């Protein structure tokens, strides 16, 4: 076996004490509080469950996994694992834990906690939308089917060492171990919460939950025992919920808010960018994102591929991009253009309402049909839904709009009760920069379960096998593997369980007193903000 560090650039860093932090900002001023606003309340802070734009960075600040990322980047680095070893066949990972790491309840974290956490996230009773990420671990299928309660491939070697055996090579496995779903949690805290761990979270992260007043605010407090020396900089972070985005922007302009969690209201975007003082506080970042409409393939008449293709041809994507002030480009496939594996010579379904009407007629629906379109109720999503509704009406499809809070849309999608969903506000942003991440949780069979994020409920076992073969190549790079992924997504588009609509840029704002690199405010893995590293300057 060969011993590896998560990044060769970290060899010098790991020669220092385990808690030394090599990304400290010399300009940072410790202390202070920031205020972040959101329109909706937070659904959960359980790392096995939480999977939306709003709670992702919150959870990441409360918990840690074996692997992590350099702040503001997608470069892997050690997390709770100080180092690791990979067998020559790429099938066995041995992680050596950092000594002395404590949970928020004061107990030291050990290897048994890692095993418990992985068993828990893959247990069907947990209903984790991320369970499928761990499908390569030996024994996953037995746990998923209920035949076993623990993963046979996860072994506690000693209190500071855990070994994970895979049933097949997985080029993305170290990325998977950096996901929130792989966060390490203490069994006693989960059991004491009695099914309410999402409201009573206990992790090893930079912050711990100090207060949660439902419908009003959450307060995160600095973890004085955090294992990364000198972090976090902030004493507290206050998340105020129930704040309309336009009100949040006004409060930011008045110095009462530091980060509007829902971003810049689209109706105010041009006004903000035209004001030099406000524009100076705007942060723009690229993202591996696709906004799409899911078409539930188990709901008639969407169970007919011709009907799904007709809907693809009915949507005027250019007009929708105009609704968000041109902050995106039209999409023609699940992968965004900057993702490896993107098929550059694929044109997608052309906007052609007349051809769409003919296709519906050929499918036995010359008069169209009635359906429902679910949408998150934060602007611009209801306006986008109305544009989609108008496009569908033009081909005889009458879609009533169900405009709900984010958590309610996610619930309906997971339950399979929503015929169509506009994913805006919940649209897919890559958990890690690999083409496989756009398949398993949102297009694969593993995500098409109760509570999963495959809201189209599309499940093609033959395609799943092709996806598995692609990820069984040990190397993450290589033209052959990317060609395999390109083929998978082209076959997805043949079945049309989605309407890919656009690939969006991220824009947010920060108050004048906020410090830290701009990349921390559009962090690709701590979406939307990396709270561990930002600070205030006053």
UniProtKB/TrEMBL annotation:
This is Peptide/nickel transport system substrate-binding protein/oligopeptide transport system substrate-binding protein. Residues 1-20 form the signal peptide. GO terms for biological process: peptide transport. Residues 76-447 form the Solute-binding protein family domain. Keywords: Signal, Transport. It is found in: Periplasm. SUPFAM superfamilies: Periplasmic binding protein-like II. It comes from Loktanella atrilutea.
């Amino acid at each position: 076996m060969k011993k590896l560090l998560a990044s060769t650039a970290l060899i010098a860093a790991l020669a220092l004490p385990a808690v030394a932090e090599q990304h400290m900002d010399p300009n940072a001023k410790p202390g202070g509080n920031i205020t972040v606003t959101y329109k909706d309340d937070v659904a959960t802070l359980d790392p096995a469950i939480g999977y939306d734009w709003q709670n992702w960075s919150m959870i990441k600040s409360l918990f840690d996994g074996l692997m992590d990322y350099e702040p503001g980047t997608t470069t892997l680095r050690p997390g709770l694992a100080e180092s690791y070893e990979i067998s020559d066949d790429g099938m066995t990972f041995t992680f050596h834990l950092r000594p002395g790491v404590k949970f928020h309840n004061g107990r030291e974290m050990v290897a048994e906690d890692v095993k418990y956490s992985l068993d828990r996230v893959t247990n069907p009773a947990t209903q984790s939308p991320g369970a499928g990420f761990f499908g390569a671990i030996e024994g996953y299928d037995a746990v998923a089917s209920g035949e076993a309660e623990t993963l046979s491939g996860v072994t506690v070697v000693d209190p500071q060492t855990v070994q994970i055996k895979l049933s097949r090579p997985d080029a993305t496995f170290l990325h998977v171990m950096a996901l929130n779903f792989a966060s390490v949690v203490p069994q006693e805290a989960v059991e004491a919460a009695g099914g309410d761990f999402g409201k009573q979270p206990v992790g090893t992260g930079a912050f711990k939950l100090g207060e949660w007043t439902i419908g009003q605010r959450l307060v995160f407090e600095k973890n004085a025992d955090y294992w990364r020396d000198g972090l976090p900089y902030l004493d507290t972070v206050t998340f105020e919920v129930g704040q309309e985005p336009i009100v949040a922007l006004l409060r930011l302009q008045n110095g009462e808010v530091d980060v509007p969690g829902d971003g810049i209201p689209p109706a105010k975007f041009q006004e903000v960018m035209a004001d030099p003082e406000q524009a100076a506080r705007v942060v723009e970042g690229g993202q591996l994102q696709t906004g799409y409409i899911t078409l539930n393939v188990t709901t008639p008449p969407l169970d007919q591929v011709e009907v799904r293709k007709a809907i693809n041809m009915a949507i005027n994507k250019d007009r929708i991009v105009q609704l968000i002030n041109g902050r995106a480009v039209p999409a023609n496939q699940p992968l965004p253009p900057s993702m490896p594996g993107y098929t550059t010579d694929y044109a997608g379904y052309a906007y052609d309402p007349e051809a769409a009407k003919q296709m519906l007629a050929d499918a036995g629906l010359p008069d169209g049909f009635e359906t429902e379109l679910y949408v998150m109720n934060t602007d611009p999503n209801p306006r986008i839904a109305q544009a989609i509704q108008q496009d569908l009406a033009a081909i005889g499809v009458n879609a009533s709009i169900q405009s709900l809070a984010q958590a309610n849309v996610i619930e309906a999608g997971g339950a399979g009760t929503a015929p169509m969903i506009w994913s805006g506000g919940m649209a897919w942003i890559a958990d890690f920069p690999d083409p496989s991440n756009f398949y398993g949780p949102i297009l694969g069979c593993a995500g098409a379960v109760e509570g999963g994020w495959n809201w189209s409920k599309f499940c093609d076992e033959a395609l799943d096998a092709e996806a598995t073969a692609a990820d069984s190549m040990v190397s993450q790079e290589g033209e052959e593997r990317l060609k395999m992924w390109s083929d998978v997504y082209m076959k997805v588009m043949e079945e049309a369980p989605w309407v890919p609509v656009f690939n969006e840029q991220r824009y947010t704002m920060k108050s004048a007193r906020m410090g830290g690199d701009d990349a921390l405010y559009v962090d690709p893995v701590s979406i939307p903000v990396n709270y561990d590293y930002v600070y205030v300057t006053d």
